[in-house]
Structures are given as C-alpha cells and as structure tokens.
Design goal:
heterotrimer; A alpha+beta; B alpha+beta; C mainly beta; B: alpha+beta; Ubiquitin-like (UB roll); FAD/NAD(P)-binding domain; 6-stranded mixed β-sheet; C: mainly beta; Folate-binding fold; 4-stranded antiparallel β-sheet; 6 strands
C-alpha cells in the first residue's frame, strides 16, 4: 500500500492561540461564470456559490470560498471523490467551467483563539480590523511573503490555506511569531 | 546626593539607585534617569571628541537631536551598539557605555592634534589632498583615513536579540505626545475614531510637563498640571492606543509609516532575556496628525562647542524633569523669551544665573518677572569667546552694533560653569516633508512651516509653527475639529493665560572682532563644520544648499543636521544676499532617527532569511545524503554523495548509471497548470510556437513559449488529458510568471476564449525514471499496463493506478533515455518514490540530482531556458527552427521573428563546443574570441553550459556565438586567467543523434 | 507603498499587486500585416509621462484579476480604477 505522508505539524498551544493541521482534506477548485455553471454547482453542492467578494458560503460540512468573480475553492468534510466526479461530469465535461482537484495543492492550518490576528498581523499587510469581527469571510493575501487564503469561519476560528511546498516554512514562521505575541 | 542633583521630581525615582559604567568607571544614577542626566548629576559633561578636530565635547541637548553625546554601548559584547545618543538611553542596572572617537581616552586624545592643525584641514580637505600621487591612495591614504574615520565600532558577532515586525491599521495616527499631540489624540479617540498616539520618550507630555512657570496657565491650572491630568484622562480612552518609546522613522505615500518601538533596552540585563528588543510597526493610517513639536536652535559664535554649553531648554528639562542642574554658575545666551523660562527656573532653585540677550529690549511678562527677580540681563550683547578645556569656565561678551553686524565697546569676562544657548525654535517638519508636503518660509521668526494640509494629513502645535501656549491649544483644537469633522469640543472655551514674545532678533552668524578665518563657530557639531567652511565652499563656487552640504558635510552626520541645517541655510543666504525662503531646504529623508539593522530585518534572519519550498520527497533526499541547490525558492536535490564522493564524482557516477541502467529524479518542482475549456487547443496554438490542433488525446508534446518580442520565455511538455483538458508543465523557476502571463492574455487580449487555468504544481509529486531499464521497473510497478512502444509510445500518457491510487504516467524524456514520469497526489509522493526505489533495486536504480540532469540533457543538446537563454535568444538563434510553425497565422512573438534585427545572420546562436584537449572543462560564462592578438579583442560569445561527460569520456559545452550556425568546425579561443583554451565549434547534439535510445 | 482598491477585492496593500505597464495598448489582431515600424511601435514604444498615466495592474496575490489604474506619476496619487474592457473615467 502507498502510505499517506502529511506535513508533520503537531498541535501547538500558545497564549490565546492554538495551531493545528487540518489534513487530509478534499479540496476542489471551481472556475466558471455562466448561468449553467452556477446552477449546476449550486445543485450538486446544495449551496449557492457566494458572489459577494471576500465571503464564503457554507452548509453543514461544505464550504465554498469566493476567490474571484469566476473562481471558488470548495472544501469540507462532505467533499469527496464522488462529488468531484459529479461536478466534473456536469460542469467540466459539458464545458460550463472547470473542476480541478486541488486537495494536495493546499495545506490547511487551523487557528483558534483571541490572538489569531495578532500573529497574522506580523506578516500580513491586510487590515484585519473589520475582518476579525465577521464570520464566513475570506481573504487572499500574503503572510510572510507567502500566498495564503484565510477563511474566518467562526469568530476566533480560522483556516489558513498555504501551498503545500511552502507549508513547512510558513508553519515554522507562524510558530516562531507566536512565541512573542 | 551629588551637588548637581538638587531637586526631587515625579519622573525620577530617587529611592531606586542604579549603577552603571561610563568609560570603565562605575557611577550611580536613579531609575528614570537617562545616561545623560545621570552623567550630569555626577558632574560629567565631557563625553566625547569631535569627529574631525577631536575637540572635547559635552552633552548638548536632552533629546534625539543630540550631536555630541554619542556612545558605544556594551562594548565587547555581541550586542555592542555604536552611535547611541546618551540623551535617549534610559539608565538600567548593568549599563556600560563608552565615549567614542577618542584614543587613548576622552580626557587625553591624540587626535586632538587635528585641532591645532585645523587651519590646514578646511572644507573639502580630503577631496583636495588625497588625490595624488595616485599610487598613494591604496597604500598610504586609505589605510590612514580608515584608521581615523568612522564613528564607533560595529558589532562583530551575530545579534542574539529578537526583532519583530507588525502591521497595524488605524483611523488616526498622532505622531508626538506633547501638548498638541495629546489634545489631538483625545479629540480623535473621543470621537469614536480608532486612534494611535506615538511618542519616542518613555512618558507623554513633551516639554510642557516640566513647565512650572506660573505665568502659563490653562483653566487656572499651571500648564504642567493641566496636562498631567489630560494624560491621566486619555489613558482611560478605549479607542486610543498609546505607544511610548516609539519613534516614527519614515512617512511614506498613502499614510504608510514605519515606527520603531523599543521594548527592552531600558530593562535591567537580567530581565531582557528572550523578549523582543525592538518592534517595527508598519502603520497604515487613514489620517495622520503630525505633532512632532520643535527643537531649540543653538547660536553660532566663536568656540560655541565646549562641554558645559547646552541648549537652554535642555537645561530646564534636566532641572525640572530629572532634578539635576548642569551648572552652579549659569549664563543663558538667548535671542528669544524661552531662555528666560530656564533662567527663572534656575533662579528659583537658588542657582546663580545671568542672561545675555541679543535683543535690544523687550517687555513681555516673562521678562518683567525676570527683572523682578533681580536676574541680571545684558541686552544687545553677544558672546565673542568661551574658555575652559574640559568644561567651560568663562565667557567673553561684547555689545552689538545698531544693525547687529559688528561688535562694539569693551570685552567683558563672565565666569560660569554652564552656558545655555537659545537661538529660537525650529518646527520639526520632517514628517510633513517626508510625506510629500511642501514648506513655506516665515520671515518674522525665520522658520520653515508646512505650506499646506491635505485631507488626510495635518500638522499641529509647534511643528506647525505655533509657539505660544494659547495659540497651540486653540489652533490645535480648531485644526483637528475641521480635520476630523468634529462639532464641539471641551476645549472650545478654554481659558489660557501666558506670556507672549514681543521682540525678535535673529543673527545666524554672530559678529566677532576675531576674523572668521581665525575663529571656530561651529554649525554642525557632530561633523565639525564651521561657519568658515560654509563661506569657503561658497567662495569656491558652490551655490546650491545640496552641494554646500556635501562639500562641507554639514548635516550629514548621524543626527542628520537637526541642529545645523537652519544655520547653514541662514549663513548661505546672508553670504549670497538672497532670501532664505528662496533657497529651499535640503531633502529630509527617512529615517528620522537611526534604525538598527536588526529592526529593519525583523525575523527574516537565519532560517527565515528566505522562503524555502520543499517537495514531498524532500526528507528522503536529506536522509540519502543529498546536497541541495536553490532553484527559485525551491530546494532541489543537486547530487547525492556516496562514500565521501565529491560533487564531480557523484555526478559522474549518477550520469553513468542513468545511461547504463536506471536513474530517478524528483521532478515535482516543475510548474503544472491544468487547462480546461472548449478553446483550450486554440489557446495552446496561440501561446506556443508549434501547432497543437493535431495532438490527440493521450499524447504529449514539447512546446516553446516566446515573449511578444520573439525571445524564448519558457518551455515544457503539455499533455492532452481529454478533449478539452490539457496539463501544461513549465520550468521550475518560471511557473508563477507563466501562469500570470497566460491569465493576462486570457483576461485582456482574448476574453472570448473559453479557457480555465488552475495551478496544480503543489498538488502533484513527480518521479521521473529514465534509462534502458526504466521500462522493466515500470512493469514491476504497473503490472496491468503494457509498456511496449505500440501501446505506450514515446510522447504519450496513461492514467494508471498504483495500489488503488490514481496516477498519471507520461512517457517523456529530458535525458534522451527511454524515460517515464509518474505524477501522483503529493501526499503519496514519498511513498511512490520509495516504491520506485524498491522496484528498481535489481537494476541499480540511482537517484540523481539536478546537476546530473543538466549534464545528461547537455549531452543531448537540450536547452535549459534561463541557462542557455537569457532573454535575447529567439528559437532560430537556438537552432530550433523545427518548433516554429510556419502555418499558424499568429502566436505570441511570431511577428517579432521577422523583424530586421531578429533576422540578422550574425546574431549569437547556440552551438556545441569541444575542447581540443578533451579533459579540459570550460567555465560557464567564459568569453569566446577569434583572435587574441588583435586589440581590442572582440568577444564573439560565451559558454552557457559545460560538463565532463562520462558517457562520451570528454568535455562538452554549449555556447552562444555570433553567426554560430555557420561556424561548425571553426577553431576558437577561450582565454582564461592562466591559459587560453583551444576549442572547436561542433554540433550541439553530442550523444545519440538519431534518438535511438528513446525507444531502446 | 500604495493602497490599491482592487475592483474585485477592495482596498489592499501594494505588495499584493504587480504592475503591468501602460494600459490600452491593444495587441494587433493581424500582426503579420504590420510593418516593422508599426510592430515596433506596439512592442516597444511607451509614453512614460510625468503626470496622469493609465496603467495595467494585476492583483497577483489576491484574485489574480487584471484591471486598469490611473496614476499621476509625479506624486503617485491614484485617480481612478476600472475593470478591463471598461472605458476610463474622466480625470
């Protein structure tokens, strides 16, 4: 059997901050813009793709993150291979848009606690003043010069998406910065 | 208590004694002292030697403008820091400070000889003297200058401290915690605006909190007490963040400011451990209120630089804030009223004080009180000389002529041990001008003040040119109200009483009976430039302030001319008989005060110096002794050393194994872009030089991408996965740029195309297995696939499963060998790799790194974009005409291939080079020439790739050479430092020209 | 560091963006029919003016969308931002 090798990020606890790895998790990138695309995606995911910028929609265990007017990232416990195949058949194959498995493109690091934004502010130029008070908001920005997607799903509970090859470096950086909030 | 510690204050805790060392001697001070105040309390004024003449210098100010009292802190430790201003160092237990720029000691300094020979060291001395003979520069002048130049010593070991960066966003940033800053911050925060107030001192209050004169009252309270209450109030405001010990260093566009917060410098040594030393705040403010105040001006007269000569207001701060007096017999030399506040304070503490005033008379409230107290005032007088070597002991004064241009009458000598000087006040407009603001010159008191406000930036208080208490409070209130759209405030009907200055008289260079050439009237104390130097520069033809500044070095020391710039300008204006306002100022550049390198760098040190990207198989490479090469941000396995091999030996072994049996390469770093959409094929036709319409599903093709200028930009293999689905690979370093470029074309030039791009570089791990036994290894891994050439030909792909996990196998080759690439989801990458190693065991499967890959492909004459190309190579230059479609109407860069320049025949073209001596390996980058004897030697090209090929047993190289296409067989020369290497131009495919091994 | 109001994501720090040079230089539809001079004009010639300049920017570390931006090159003030394909607003 092939072994799964995930990043070796042990859960870490700092004052008012907890960091942990949220892997493995299934992730799908959706791109499209026509009406059929929205209809099909909405039906298969039982969720309307959010069209408001920097937001996410979620239902039970499916999250749809707005990335751009024609791009979304779907992840969550209820996302699986079957859903990917269905999306592919109903969207990609019918030329309504594109469906791409990006499960291993991104690594999710979960942040919990009051100090999330104190740490993120050390390496990100993004203004979190409003963001931290809202749930289901999303931002794509830079953290320590690495591209990240931040999904603030609940107040003081955030998932950070970083490209796999950068993840070890960024994990070390986050932990370093968390030492002296 | 020493005889200079005469006063108890709220700011210094005299129950908390602290010991420190200065120049090796132990002294005591108290918590709350600065190094400067503690030294003064110990009667020490002489703290350094001046830069050029090594004259004794003393503490002159109490703030960041200090030019003289700069110290080396904690000499001999890792952290030793030069050029720290004693006026800004908070005293802590264990502090060790040393004076700088003197040898063997500050009391007796050999460099002081420069003072005696100073007539021979005029402005521009170095420029003029050390010019000839030329041969002397390296051997004599430079070593000599180096020995005496520079301020302080830099640390020689790594800095163990932690420096941190943090972004912060606010509605309003107030810079400066003096009275106007406090008023502004309160108005802003009370108006529900998220506000930050920054001050560089440890406490808010500016110069008002040590103002104890009863003439100055706000709502019937002494201004100091009123302000202390305000400070108490604002500390309770929820919207207000107060950052003390924080200095704004830079003010950039769009209200982006950098401020350095000092977090543990003031703590005793044993409490500093493992905490952040300094934090650089990156502030983005919607609005900025500049309340940086003003600094006092010195006066320029003969010998105005002796220890014991301080700015008058600094004397007042030492007295009322720190409780120490700078002298027992004081003289205040002033041209304005503020010096009188100091004189009254000194008098009230029972200290002897006299006043010398340039003005003819004045009758303001302050002066009336001074006279009432019986303090002697010498009106219309100036100082012509000062005396005392290690500290001032007396001065000589004379009367001024009617117009102030000359001295008249008798010389009078006054004994003193401290001289306070005050030439008026200079608004700190640095922040305003750094942000792009312009200045106006105000003639009445000769100050530059902000010319205009913008919607998001204003200046208030004395940084805006308001110096009278009532003016400061009222105008700050009005300006901030308007700026922040506030209706009514508590300050609208404040009742203020204060003394108002009635007379002004400013003389930039005070007259003397000693000629300018023979006296020493210092302008820039730290760089030792005098009025004479400025006049000399102007006589020599320098007119612009920027030129005079650089020629005389006025304003170019670590204090950046905070005390000197105005006088330099004034003297230039006077000498040239032009209006000072028309001269303009020199440019105020960041940082306002020096920043440590640590603060600038933050945590980007050591392992965080640069970002590193790792492949899923990284740890396997580490365990197997790989050396790594940086490719972009990636760490790629470079070669795997076995049994203490050196790099050459490893590469030779790996290369041989890959051709003889089997090799395996981690190719996960290649960029991968998933392309979907009904116009995907058309899209590829437009972005690559070759044709894609006939590529059938399941097939792969190599593509070359150009820039619009026709130069090679990237290359890689693209696979057709489905009808409307392709997987493009790019070079490792080019991945992000290629994706961005393709998106650009899709979004802007061809929005009509139905194409979607998604990066999947990190989603897949790629193992590339090559060599004559690769097929056998693949068979072991994938028993259900037929690997014969018919079912699985070169340049095709198959979906496959390994242990039930989906993967893709591409039969493609970058080495010229029969070769396969397996793509699998990254989480299985390491396991797949180990499986391949296991399956290849019987075939001596050999992991090889990027160096071997480069060698193998060079044997085959395959280019590497970025190594054999440099942005000036067309496909034709690379002799890759075959990949440029003649039939396609258009593709990116096509038209440029028919420009007259790109069609020139004598362009540099890719060729092979063989050294006549087969064991000699050329250096990459080496220049190539025809003829060494014809001068100047014409460079006709250079070596781009060079290796010793173990498979051919000789040295091979790729090069670009002018007109190379036509030079096959031509003998050329590669001149090196120790020999000239003879080479012959060859075909650039050195190995298996007919591609027989691909299908072996 | 500018603050740039991405027409899709809102106000962001300049470090999230990359600049793509002068705007409104359309790629010729039929390049092969152009003379060397005409092609060189498209390829190389840029105004690079002091004053109001129309530029292309990409929110490369955000939504990856390209857009146009009007900047005064003498003081870096941004006078307008509009999507690709839209007409520039009056300045």
């Amino acid at each position: 059997m092939l072994d799964i090798k995930l990043p070796e990020f042990e859960k870490k606890v700092y004052p008012e901050l907890e960091l942990s790895l949220l892997e493995p998790s299934y992730k799908i990138n959706l791109r499209g813009k026509n009406r059929d695309f929205f209809t099909k995606a909405g039906k298969l995911l039982s969720i309307m793709l959010p069209i408001e910028s920097n937001t996410s929609a979620n239902i039970k265990n499916i999250n749809a993150l707005w990335l751009s007017p024609d791009e979304w990232l779907i992840y969550g416990k209820d996302i699986d291979k079957n859903l990917e195949i269905n999306l592919n058949n109903e969207i990609s194959k019918l030329k309504y848009g594109s469906v791409t498995n990006v499960s291993d493109q991104w690594v999710i690091i979960n942040f919990k606690g009051k100090n999330i934004f104190e740490v993120l502010s050390k390496g990100s130029p993004f203004n979190f003043n409003d963001f931290k008070g809202k749930k289901n908001v999303v931002v794509q920005t830079l953290l320590n010069n690495v591209d990240v997607i931040l999904h603030h799903q609940e107040i003081n509970d955030l998932n950070l998406f970083v490209r796999k090859s950068f993840s070890e470096h960024l994990w070390l950086w986050i932990n370093d910065s968390s030492r002296f909030i | 208590m020493s005889k200079f510690r005469i006063n108890k204050t709220n700011f210094v805790d005299q129950t908390n004694r602290i010991s420190f060392k200065f120049d090796g001697k132990t002294f005591f001070g108290f918590k709350g002292d600065t190094l400067a105040s503690a030294l003064i309390a110990n009667g020490i004024h002489l703290v350094g030697r001046s830069f050029k003449y090594h004259r004794p210098r003393g503490i002159m100010t109490c703030g960041s403008e200090e030019p003289n009292a700069i110290c080396q802190i904690n000499d001999k430790s890792n952290l030793t820091e030069p050029n720290v201003r004693a006026t800004e160092i908070e005293l802590y237990e264990g502090l060790e400070a040393n004076s700088q720029n003197c040898w063997p000691s500050v009391q007796f300094d050999i460099g002081g000889i420069n003072n005696l020979i100073s007539p021979f060291i005029p402005a521009g001395f170095y420029y003029k003297t050390f010019m000839w003979p030329k041969s002397f520069w390296k051997t004599v002048y430079e070593p000599l200058i180096r020995k005496t130049a520079g301020l302080g010593k830099s640390p020689i070991k790594p800095d163990p401290e932690i420096y941190d960066h943090k972004h912060v966003h606010c509605d309003v940033l107030v810079i400066g915690g003096g009275i106007s800053g406090i008023i502004s911050a309160k108005l802003s925060a009370k108006n529900n605006l998220n506000t930050i107030l920054i001050d560089d001192k440890k406490e808010l209050g500016g110069s008002t909190i040590f103002q104890d004169n009863e003439i100055f009252k706000i709502n019937n309270k002494i201004s100091k007490d009123w302000l202390l209450n305000e400070i108490h109030e604002i500390k309770k405001l929820k919207n207000l963040q107060i950052k003390t010990r924080t200095s704004v260093a830079a003010y950039h566009d769009y209200n982006y400011l950098l401020a350095s917060e000092s977090l543990n410098d003031h703590l005793p040594k044993n409490e500093k451990d493992r905490s952040v030393r300094q934090r650089l705040w990156k502030i983005r403010a919607k609005k900025v209120i500049i309340a940086t105040g003003a600094i006092e001006r010195p006066l320029v007269f003969n010998n105005n630089d002796r220890p014991g000569i301080l700015l008058a207001n600094s004397i007042n701060k030492y007295l009322n804030y720190f409780g120490v007096t700078c002298g027992l017999k004081n003289v205040i030399f002033t041209n304005n009223d503020s010096g009188y506040e100091t004189a009254i304070s000194l008098h009230k503490k029972g200290l002897d004080v006299k006043i010398i005033d340039l003005r003819k008379r004045s009758g303001s409230e302050l002066i009336k009180e001074t006279e009432k107290l019986g303090i002697k005032i010498h009106w219309n007088s100036t100082i012509t000389n000062t005396f005392g070597y290690r500290k001032i002991n007396s001065i000589e004064i004379m009367s001024l002529s009617e117009d102030g241009s000359n001295v008249i009458g008798e010389k009078n000598k006054i004994f003193c041990d401290c001289l306070g000087i005050s030439g008026g006040w200079t608004p700190m407009v640095h922040m305003h001008t750094q942000s792009g603001g312009k200045l106006n010159f105000r003639e009445t008191d000769q100050v530059f003040i902000p010319k205009e406000f913008s919607d998001n930036r204003i200046s208030v208080g004395s940084s805006n040119g308001h110096f009278e208490l009532d003016e400061i409070v009222k105008s700050t209130n009005q300006t901030v109200k308007k700026f922040l759209h506030i209706q009514d405030t508590d300050l609208d009907d404040t009742n203020i009483s204060c003394s108002k200055e009635l007379e002004k008289r400013n003389i930039w260079l005070l007259p003397n009976y000693i000629s300018i050439g023979k006296n020493k009237s210092f302008i820039d104390f730290q760089n030792d430039s005098t009025a004479k130097d400025i006049k000399l520069a102007m006589r020599e033809g320098f007119k612009s302030i920027e030129h005079v500044k650089r020629y005389t070095t006025t304003g170019m020391a670590t204090d950046q001319g905070k005390l000197s710039n105005m006088h330099a300008l004034g003297i230039i204006a006077e000498t040239a008989a032009v209006k000072m306002g028309s001269l303009g100022t020199t440019t105020f550049r960041p940082p306002f005060t020096p920043l440590t390198f640590g603060t600038i760098v933050g945590r980007s040190v050591g392992k965080f110096f640069d970002i590193t990207r790792k492949t899923p198989m990284h740890e396997w490479h580490v365990k197997n002794n790989a050396e790594f090469e940086n490719v972009g941000q990636w760490k790629r396995a470079w070669y795997y050393s076995r049994d203490n091999e050196n790099m050459h030996q490893s590469v030779q072994r790996e290369s041989k194994a890959a051709r003889d049996s089997a090799g395996i390469l981690d190719a996960s770093t290649l960029g991968k872009i998933d392309i979907k959409g009904s116009d995907a094929t058309e899209f590829l036709n437009r972005v690559y030089t070759n044709a894609w319409s006939k590529l059938s599903i399941g097939k792969c093709r190599y593509g070359l991408m150009l820039n619009e200028d026709g130069m090679v930009y990237d290359d890689g293999v693209t696979t057709r996965i489905g009808e409307n689905h392709y997987l493009m690979t790019t070079t490792t370093g080019g991945a992000a740029n290629v994706l961005s470029k393709l998106e650009d074309y899709l979004q802007t030039e061809w929005p009509e195309l139905d194409v979607w791009l998604t990066s999947v570089t990190d989603h897949y791990a790629t193992a590339s297995i090559c060599g004559p036994n690769s097929k056998k290894i693949l068979k072991k891994l994938f028993s259900d696939i037929e690997f014969n050439d018919q079912n699985f030909p070169h340049m095709s792909f198959k979906n496959a499963k390994i242990d039930g996990i989906d993967c893709r196998i591409m039969r493609i080759s970058f080495t010229g060998e029969h070769s396969y690439e397996i793509n699998i989801e990254a989480k299985y990458g390491n396991s797949l790799w180990e499986k391949c190693m296991e399956a290849g065991k019987d075939f001596n499967i050999t992991p090889y790194g990027t160096e071997t890959m480069h060698l193998l492909r060079a044997e085959k004459g395959f280019i590497i974009v970025g190594q054999d190309t440099d942005g000036t190579m067309t496909p034709i230059d690379l002799q890759m005409d075959w990949i440029v479609s003649k039939k396609k109407y258009d593709f990116i860069g096509k038209r440029s291939l028919y420009r007259s320049d790109t069609m020139r025949e004598d362009r540099k073209q890719l060729v092979g080079l063989l050294t006549d001596e087969p064991n000699t390996v050329l250096e990459e980058g080496a220049q190539i020439v025809y003829d060494e004897n014809k001068k100047p030697i014409e460079m006709i090209g250079h070596v781009t790739s060079s290796y010793f090929s173990p498979n051919l047993n000789k040295s091979i190289a790729l090069a670009v050479v002018k007109n190379g296409r036509k030079l096959k067989g031509q003998k050329l020369l590669v001149p090196m430092r120790d020999q000239t290497i003879n080479v012959t131009v060859s075909d650039f495919i050195f190995y298996d020209k007919n591609n027989e091994r691909l299908n072996a | 560091m500018f603050l740039i109001n991405c027409p899709y994501c809102g106000e962001r720090d300049q470090s999230e963006f990359s600049s793509g040079g002068e705007a409104h230089i359309e790629r010729p539809k039929q390049p092969t029919e152009l003379s060397d001079d005409e092609w060189a004009d498209f390829l190389f010639m840029r105004k690079n003016i002091k004053g109001i300049q129309f530029e292309r920017w990409n929110h490369s570390h955000g939504c990856r969308k390209w857009f146009n931006l009007i900047r005064d090159t003498s003081n870096d003030k941004i006078h307008g931002i509009y999507k690709m394909g839209e007409k520039p607003p009056k300045v």
